[in-house]
Design a protein that fits this description.
By secondary structure, the protein is an alpha+beta fold. The protein has eight helices and 21 strands. Helix 1 runs parallel beside helix 5 (153-166) and helix 2 packs across helix 8.
Length: 361
C-alpha cells in the first residue's frame, strides 16, 4: 500500500492548472500530485482562444455565485499567483435591450451586491456619456460592474503550475491519455497513448473539449459535453475606443466588444457544435454576424477588421459546470464543461475540486 495517495490531473489549461494549484495547497507533501498535458504548451486550446474577460454577472442563475466568487478571486489574487498585468480592473458594462433582460440584470446586480461586489444601475444616457459610440445602440438599462476586467489567462496558468510544482507537484507535457483505468471499486489509474500505465488513487478530469471522448474510450458513461466553436474578430488600430474602456456586453444579443491592441476585439458568441481540435475560421459566420452587429453596435461598421480566429467552448448539460466528484466512480472528479466561463471561474473551480476530492485508498 502506498504511503501517500497519488492524484493525477488530466489537462493543464485554466481548469487543470487551477485544480493543481488548489490541490497542492490542500494536500502539500501528504499526496503525490501529477499534472498531465497532451500539448507541449499548457493552455493552448480554449484557455488561449478567448477574450480573457472576467465577468461577474452572468445569464445562467446556476452560475451566479461561482462567477461572483471568480471575480473576487481575480481582484484578490494570492501573492504567489499575482504579477504585473495579470488582471486589469477596467470594469464591464452590460447592456439590456428588452424588459426581461433588464429585470434579469437588476436581479443579478442585487445578488452581487449581497455578496460584496459593487455593480451600479445605469441609464442609456449614462452609457453614452462614458462611451459615445453607444448613442445608436438599443439600451433599456445597463449595469456597470467596476470589479470586472481583463485577465491574462496564460500567466495565471504559468503561476498556478509553478506554485504547485513548488509544493512538489510534477508536470509532464506532451503526455496524452488514452483511457482511464478503473474497476467496480473506483479508479485505478490511466493508460497513456505511448502504452505507459500510471497508477493513481484519484483522477481529476480537466480535459476540456476532449473530456467526452476520453470517457467514451474508457468505457464510462458520457456526460453530454458539447464543444462549440466561437469566432472572435480583432480590428486594426482604431482611435474611437479608449484602451482603458470597460468591455461591453449586449445581454439580449449575446455579443460583446472590448479594447484590444489599440483597436477593438468583438464577437457575436456564435456556437456551432464541432469536434474537439483546433477550429478553423468560417467566413460565412461573419457575414451573418454583420446583420446582428449593424443593429446593436452600428459603430463597428467603420472599424477595419485585421484578424479573425476561432476557439472552443465546451458546455455541460443543464447550463452548469461538470464539477467535483463523480457520483458513481470513486476517485474520479471533474473540472469540465465551463462553457466560456473558464477565465472568470478558474479560481473557485480549482478550489471546489480540491475541497471535494476524496482519493480512493
Amino acid at each position: 500500500m502506498r504511503e501517500r495517495p497519488v492524484i493525477i490531473v488530466i489537462g493543464a489549461g485554466l481548469a487543470g492548472a487551477a485544480s493543481a494549484w488548489a490541490l497542492s495547497r490542500r494536500f502539500g507533501p501528504a499526496a503525490e500530485l501529477l499534472v498531465l498535458e497532451k500539448e507541449v504548451i499548457p493552455g493552448s486550446h480554449a484557455s488561449a482562444q478567448n477574450a480573457a474577460m472576467v465577468r461577474s454577472l452572468v445569464d445562467e442563475p446556476v452560475l451566479t455565485r461561482i462567477s461572483i466568487e471568480g471575480c473576487q478571486f481575480w481582484n484578490q489574487l494570492p501573492e504567489e499567483l499575482a504579477g504585473p498585468g495579470l488582471f486589469r480592473r477596467n470594469a464591464s458594462l452590460l447592456l439590456a435591450e428588452s424588459e426581461d433582460a433588464w429585470r434579469r440584470l437588476q436581479a443579478r446586480a442585487e445578488e452581487a451586491r449581497g455578496l460584496g461586489l459593487h455593480p451600479e444601475l445605469w441609464t442609456a444616457a449614462d452609457c453614452v456619456r462614458l462611451l459615445p459610440m453607444l448613442a445608436d445602440c438599443p439600451i433599456r438599462g445597463a449595469v456597470y460592474s467596476p470589479e470586472d476586467g481583463i485577465a491574462d489567462p496564460a500567466s495565471l496558468i504559468e503561476h498556478s503550475l509553478a506554485a504547485a510544482r513548488g509544493r512538489g507537484a510534477q508536470l509532464r507535457l506532451g503526455s496524452e491519455v488514452e483511457r482511464l483505468l478503473h474497476d467496480e471499486e473506483g479508479v485505478l489509474g490511466l493508460l497513456l497513448e505511448d502504452g505507459e500505465r500510471l497508477e493513481a488513487n484519484a483522477l481529476v478530469l480537466a480535459a476540456g473539449a476532449w473530456t467526452e471522448e476520453l470517457l467514451q474510450r474508457s468505457g464510462l458513461p458520457g456526460r453530454e459535453l458539447l464543444p462549440r466553436r466561437r469566432h472572435l474578430y480583432a480590428s486594426s488600430p482604431w482611435p474611437g475606443l479608449d484602451p482603458e474602456a470597460p468591455f461591453v456586453w449586449h445581454v439580449d444579443a449575446g455579443a460583446y466588444f472590448r479594447p484590444e491592441g489599440g483597436g477593438v476585439l468583438f464577437s457575436v458568441c456564435d456556437e456551432e457544435v464541432v469536434p474537439p481540435g483546433r477550429p478553423v475560421v468560417d467566413d460565412e459566420v461573419f457575414a451573418e454576424a454583420e446583420q446582428k452587429l449593424e443593429r446593436i453596435f452600428p459603430f463597428l461598421e467603420e472599424v477595419p477588421i485585421a484578424h479573425a480566429w476561432a476557439g472552443l467552448r465546451t458546455y455541460a448539460d443543464g447550463g452548469g459546470f461538470l464539477l467535483g466528484p463523480d457520483p458513481q466512480l470513486a476517485g474520479l472528479s471533474f473540472a469540465a464543461g465551463l462553457g466560456g466561463h473558464g477565465v472568470t471561474c478558474a479560481g473557485p473551480v480549482g478550489q471546489r475540486v480540491a475541497e471535494s476530492l476524496v482519493p480512493k485508498m
